[in-house]
Structures are given as structure tokens and as C-alpha cells.
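subagent[fold] <- orchestrator: predict structure for attached chain, return C-alpha cells only, no commentary.
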Amino acid sequence: MQQIALIKQPKIALALSITFFLMSGYGIIFTYLSPYLIQTTKMSDHVLSFALLILGIASLFGSKFGGFSADKWGITLTLKRGLVLNILSILLLSLLSNSINSVIIILTLWSFSGWSSGATQQFNLATISAKSSDVLLGLNQSMMQLGFAFGAAIGGLAVSQLSIRSITWMGSIPVLVSLIVTVGLSRYLMNEKKVRQSVGTQIRA
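subagent[fold] -> orchestrator:
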């Protein structure tokens, strides 16, 4: 199958793992976000609904900005910045969870950065193998679902074995892995490009 053949390629496997780990971190937090906010900030149902609405709006703007930024400043730089901002916002959430206003601002940044990274990742996959972009985007959707489900399961274990507050730092770990893989993939692709250029030069010579 074409999907299996693609996944066997190291650069494709690395690229898809970025999506998996990013969505794992998102799943850990988002699945248990409502009880987390109620317990840590004592949010009322009305304020909670408002906060979740803001998250939805931030995700929409994040997706749009991810595409714009990838075109203007480059895919890799946009992806790295988005992941760094996502990690920082998660860590800030664990430190400033006593202030409702601060929490809403931080969650806005978290949602914005997460979805900007998701949109940029689709561009990333399309450029890695343009001929197989349709198949790769389908695999990316599968990785998103698997990652979110895995994250939800890990979040459930964290809540039951540790505490509801642990979902923040637990959620930052897979996103950090995603950032490390992004850096590694960037170097892999640069080395691959240099090898192709070197081979091309030798052939012309």
C-alpha cells in the first residue's frame, strides 16, 4: 500500500510524528480542561462557556495565521515558533491558574499556537512530498485522531493517579517532543538537500 510505503520513509515518519505528539499534548489538556478550570480557578459555568468560546475563536485565527506565517516567514520557522509558544503557554497555565483573567489569556495563546502549528504542519507535509500530498494529508488526519485519543488516555491516567493539575506539565511533554522532532527533521531535510546538490554537481561534472 502507498500509505505504508510512505511511512517507511524516515522523513515522512518524522513529519507524521510531529502531528501525533502535538495532538497528544492537546488531547491531554483539552479532554480534562473543563474540570481543571472549575477546580483551579473556581470558574462559574457562564465564565467557563465564555472561555471555551474564546478558545474556539483563537483556534480559527490560529489556523489562518499559520498559513499566512508559513507563506511569509517559512514553514519550519513558523512551526518552531508555534510549538515554543504552545509549550510556554502550557507551563504558564500551571503557574498562573489562580487568576481567571490570566488563565483566559493564556488559554487563548495556547489554542492559537496549537492550531497555527497544526495548519503549518499540513503545509510541511505537502512540501516534503508534493507528489503524495493527498495521501500524506490523509495520514496526517489519522495521526491527529490517534494522537488526541492517546493524549486523552494519558490524561485520564494522570488525573486518576496524580491530580487534575498534572495535565498541564504532562501536556507539555509531548509538545516538547514534537519540537525536538521538528528540529531534527529540519536538519535531516537540509542534509538530504545538500546530498542531492552534491550528486547533481558530480553528474554535471
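orchestrator: received. Logging for downstream: Residues 22 and 55 are 17 Å apart (CA to CA). The chain has a mean pLDDT of 87.
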